[in-house]
What does this fold into?
Amino acid sequence: MGVCGMLRVVQTGIGGLDVYDVQTCPVPKPAIGEILIRTEFAGINYLDVLMRRGEYTSTPKLPFTPGCGIVGTVVELGSSVNGQSGFAVGDRVVVLTQSGGYSQYVTADARAATHVPEGVPSDKAVCCVSSYVAAHQLLHRAARVHGGWRVLVHSAAGGVGTALTQLARIAGCAVYGTASAGKHDTVRGLGAVPIDYRSSDFVVEMSRNEPDGIDAVFDPIGGEHWLRSRRVVRRGGIVVGYGMRTIRTAARMLVASRGRRFSYYSMNTRNVLQNTEDLRLILNLCSENIIDPVIGPRLPLERVHDAHRLLTDGAITGKALLDCR
It folds into this structure.
């Protein structure tokens, strides 16, 4: 292969941005059943923030490299991976993993990789794997939405939020989305009715617009916010919580549901068959221009600290990416 060193981000502890260390290390060799990928882009997810803060129960053992969605080119095949596996050197692929993505080279189980269709840019492809698969599963596996449903998407201008909004509109839903005023054009452009969560109370706004309640709320914020989201849902409707710090509030929501259903969603990266099936569907939608991922800032791998600062400050519209080239 001719490359002996690479850059990667290593999380060395629990805490602030200082626990991220950009290191030079040898390029790994793919094990049996694995492929080695030269990374183009890695998606930045709030899950990475929760792992950094120690607020995610399945955080890998320290030290580890964060990052759960990448796109890149296959540069080496491990033992037992051959032409019959469907992969060859030079193939462009996306991979969903629990960790390891903030790196210029990544080894991955070949079964977890999916080919990127021709015509789909790599930056949009990585949005599909790290935001749109989650959004699809939230809508169709957790909430089981139907055409004609009225739904509220919190943080509608973020990576998963923009994906939820687009996919909900494709499914025939009427969508409301909370976002700061500066992001309303994005939310409106995706076909949703924006609500400024900073200058107004979304419960009051939703009660005014939908006095009988709506069918579903998608809430990544958690805590008391879930209980407020429940107030805008009709009896028999559902609040879907995802991406938050703990599941303690989930038990409380089940007790306090008052005729509203509650679901806590967390993507299982080990469910390779389901995730691959959903990812192929999303990539096909992207290749047919039915969805158009909203891409935020693209920062080089060495600026991972700046990227996470923007994410936690709420300064990103769409999906932020690390450029690992």
Summary: The first helix runs from residue 46 to 53.
